[in-house]
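Appendix C: a fully annotated inverse folding record. The material below is reproduced so that readers can follow the format used throughout the book. The structure is listed first as tokens, followed by the designed sequence.
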């Protein structure tokens, strides 16, 4: 199945419908899936989504010698990339992407949702330098109310980032609307846009609390 690209209020939302992505998403949605399998499924999904996120990178030409002759190849300069994990659950996507882009810069933004208001509270931030020269790929499996992703991207822009993409696994329509209104210049790449948020601001059908499922906490 081909990807679905949605354009709304000048924003781009790419829903990756690849059968392997959907297979692994179904696996991690299943409440019978334990933490170890949940983490490995998330890691595999992150690598498949990385393929989509990096599709429009501009590689550099590089001259090499094969064992038989010289040729002109291409390389991606990891120094022009930056992966930003929204803690905790963002780390479930970060590690798999780092396997593919080992020389990318790495940043962390620690946010948790206040259990009553669902407003994100920042508790940590550490970002690499020269953000303005890098494509910043922000990762978090869940886009629910959109508060955490919107706040994280705001902090990145304040720190100088100019080119940003946001990667999640499951998004709620409500979160997509909030995020694209605040940051229409930041494309969203996701494996699914689910039905709705419930009255606890959990995504339905969703996959539950991503951080808790990754680490077996409650
Ligand atoms: C989850 C998730 C997102 C956020 C999404 O994190 O990983 O960061 O909720 O919700 P929102 O779109 O309504 O802001 P959580 O706050 O549970 O923290 P955790 O990753 O430490 O578990
Ligand atoms: N955060 C999660 O981890 N899951 C949701 O459904 C909503 C927010």
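Designed amino acids, in order:
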């Amino acid at each position: 199945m081909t990807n679905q690209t949605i354009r709304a209020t000048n924003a781009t939302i790419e829903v990756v419908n690849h059968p392997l992505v959907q297979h692994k998403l179904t696996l991690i949605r299943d409440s019978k899936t334990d933490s170890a399998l949940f983490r490995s499924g998330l890691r595999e999904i992150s690598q498949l989504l990385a393929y989509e996120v990096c599709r429009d990178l501009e590689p550099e030409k590089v001259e090499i010698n094969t064992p038989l002759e010289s040729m002109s190849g291409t390389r991606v300069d990891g120094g022009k990339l930056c992966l930003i994990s929204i803690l905790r659950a963002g780390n479930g996507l970060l590690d798999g992407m780092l396997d593919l882009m080992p020389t990318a810069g790495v940043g962390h933004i620690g946010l948790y949702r206040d259990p009553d208001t669902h407003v994100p509270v920042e508790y940590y931030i550490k970002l690499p330098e020269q953000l303005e020269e890098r494509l910043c790929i922000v990762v978090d499996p869940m886009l629910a109310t959109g508060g955490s992703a919107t706040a994280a991207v705001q902090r990145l822009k304040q720190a100088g980032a100019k080119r940003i993409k946001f990667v999640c696994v499951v998004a709620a329509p409500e979160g997509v609307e909030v995020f694209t209104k605040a940051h229409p210049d930041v494309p969203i790449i996701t494996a699914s846009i689910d039905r709705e948020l419930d009255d606890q601001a959990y995504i339905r059908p969703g996959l539950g609390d991503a951080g808790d499922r990754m680490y077996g906490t409650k």
